[in-house]
Here is the input.
Amino acid sequence: MALTVASQVKEVIKKSEMNCAGDFCDALDKKVEEIVNNAVSRAKSNDRKTVRPGDL
Here is the structure.
């Protein structure tokens, strides 16, 4: 499941005058999913059903 928009990510990288490896967006999606899962775990550990920015 894609959590990021590859074209937008590549655009940001291009603005920095860098190139984007073909597998970068896949790795980024995995990292984002990890961050979200950690935030969900933190919210659950605080007995909440709402994930908040502070959970990041």
